[in-house]
């Protein structure tokens, strides 16, 4: 691991970065909106005459990438005459493989040290001569800068602190994160499903089936991902206790690791019993394909949680902070548990107490309001938090 990567992933540095970012944003928001004009409410007229559109969301978080990707599907399926480009990041580019995009423009962290590459990216964007640039998500100053520097004839963003800086303004940020794309698609007259989007090819699924078959477990083991970001992370002793509980109950399970959890591999391998297996870190595409094979995924509030929701895989979301409730999946077979103990999770996984896991139905192709999405979430599951058996994550 390089020194820069170590510093970027260090818990204290992440918290410091967030505090500095909030302070800088507050000052910039005031400066940017001081003399700005009021944008028009977005409508189907916004797309009139648009031949080429750029969606802008250069976010390095996996969850944010797949949440915003649903707008790609809404636009390309219902307005196929429009050529669609996407500005994302190099670390999340693999998530957009096989999506109907004309061009994927990639932002990299290394561009801070190599500004000539950033300049080339801006030149490339301006050469595309976009009719409309859309900021997917409200509050990112990086996205805002690219929306206004890409040379698009018109701009669009969400209602919020920067709404006066756009030509067209969509709806405000939703209460539930999975409805983000709907707040932009609905005003444009597009139907949109309120959940993330991710595609896995038939070939990738076949390869994932072979990976799981080589583990010599009974069919359909559950998946367990142990990662997490800052306070959303659950401590290792919790997972070790959960694996012991599952093995004692004879529940087949597969533990998945991301790059940041690779250092815990040996401890987890020593914890596994006869009914558990571990898969080391793998490429993002291979990881998504393996996820698609599980009947259920157990995970904290992480990028893989949103990937599973996008693939229609029922999720048991183990939340460590109340704010994660706005990001947890709300599908009919999903279950949200707030700071549970390992025995409770194992009991729910091995007894007939979970929502029925079935083929993910196609949601009605209508754009749901944020209030409607939030109303489907059972917040009663959050009202009785108890002490985390392994300490706060």
Verbal overview:
It is built from 14 helices and 13 strands. The chain is an alpha/beta fold and 393 residues long. The strands form 2 sheets. It has a 7-stranded parallel beta sheet with strand order 1-7-6-5-2-3-4, sandwiched between helices. A 6-stranded parallel beta sheet has the order 10-9-8-11-12-13, sandwiched between helices. Helix content is 35%, strand content 15%. The protein folds into 2 domains: 20-185, Rossmann fold (3-Layer(aba) Sandwich); 202-382, Glycogen Phosphorylase B (Rossmann fold), CATH 3.40.50.2000. It is elongated and about 65 Å long.
User: Which consecutive residue ranges, at least 5 long each, have pLDDT under 50?
Assistant: 359-393
Secondary-structure element order, N to C:
HHEEHHEEHEHEEHHEHEHEHEHEEHH
Shape: elongated
Overall mean pLDDT stands at: 85
Task: Supply the number of helical segments.
Answer: 14
CATH superfamily of the largest domain: Glycogen Phosphorylase B
CATH fold-level assignment of the largest domain: Rossmann fold
The count of DSSP E runs of length 2 or more, i.e. the number of strands, is 13
Q: Looking across the biggest beta sheet, what order are the strands in?
A: 1-7-6-5-2-3-4
Largest sheet: 7 strands, parallel
Known CATH architecture of the largest domain: 3-Layer(aba) Sandwich
Count of domain modules: 2
Query: End-to-end span in angstroms?
Result: 23 Å
The class by helix and strand makeup works out as alpha/beta
Q: What is the share of helical residues?
A: 25-40%
Please state roughly what percent of the residues sit in beta strands, choosing from under 5%, 5-15%, 15-25%, 25-35%, 35-45% or over 45%.
Answer: 5-15%
**Nearest-angstrom radius of gyration?**
21 Å
GO molecular function: ADP-heptose-lipopolysaccharide heptosyltransferase activity
Protein name: Lipopolysaccharide heptosyltransferase family protein
Organism: Billgrantia tianxiuensis
Keywords: Glycosyltransferase, Transferase
């Amino acid at each position: 691991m390089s020194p820069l990567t170590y510093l970027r992933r260090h818990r204290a540095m992440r918290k410091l970065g967030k505090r500095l970012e909030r302070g800088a944003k507050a000052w910039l928001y005031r400066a940017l909106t001081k003399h700005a004009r009021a944008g028009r409410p977005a409508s189907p007229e916004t797309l009139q005459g648009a031949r080429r559109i750029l969606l802008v969301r250069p976010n390095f978080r996996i969850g944010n990438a797949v949440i915003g990707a649903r707008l790609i599907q809404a636009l390309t399926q219902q307005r196929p005459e429009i050529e669609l480009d996407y500005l994302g990041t190099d670390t999340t580019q693999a998530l957009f493989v096989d999506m109907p995009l004309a061009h994927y423009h990639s932002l990299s962290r290394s561009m801070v040290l190599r500004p000539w590459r950033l300049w080339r990216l801006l030149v490339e964007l301006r050469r595309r001569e976009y009719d409309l640039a859309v900021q997917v998500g409200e509050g990112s100053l990086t996205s805002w800068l690219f929306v206004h520097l890409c040379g698009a004839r018109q701009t669009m963003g969400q209602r919020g602190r920067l709404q006066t800086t756009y030509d067209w303004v969509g709806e405000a940020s939703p209460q539930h994160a999975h409805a983000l794309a709907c707040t932009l698609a609905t005003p444009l007259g597009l139907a949109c499903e309120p959940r993330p989007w991710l595609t896995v090819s038939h070939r990738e699924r076949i390869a994932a089936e072979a990976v799981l078959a080589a583990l010599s477990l009974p069919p359909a083991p559950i998946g367990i991902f142990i990662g997490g970001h800052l306070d959303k992370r659950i401590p290792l002793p919790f997972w070790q206790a959960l694996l012991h509980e599952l093995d004692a109950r004879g529940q087949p399970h597969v533990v998945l690791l991301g790059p940041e959890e690779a250092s815990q591999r040996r401890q987890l391998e020593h914890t596994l019993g006869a009914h558990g297996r571990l898969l080391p870190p793998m490429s993002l595409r291979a990881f998504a394909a393996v996820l698609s094979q599980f009947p259920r995924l157990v995970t904290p509030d992480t990028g893989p949680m949103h990937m599973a929701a996008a693939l229609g895989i029922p999720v048991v979301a183990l939340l460590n902070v109340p704010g994660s409730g706005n990001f947890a999946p709300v599908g009919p077979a999903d279950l949200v548990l707030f700071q549970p103990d390992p025995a409770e999770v194992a009991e729910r996984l091995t007894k007939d107490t979970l929502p029925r896991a079935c083929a993910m139905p196609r949601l009605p192709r209508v754009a749901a309001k944020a209030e409607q999405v939030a109303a489907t979430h059972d917040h009663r599951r959050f009202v009785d938090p108890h002490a985390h058996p392994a300490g706060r994550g």
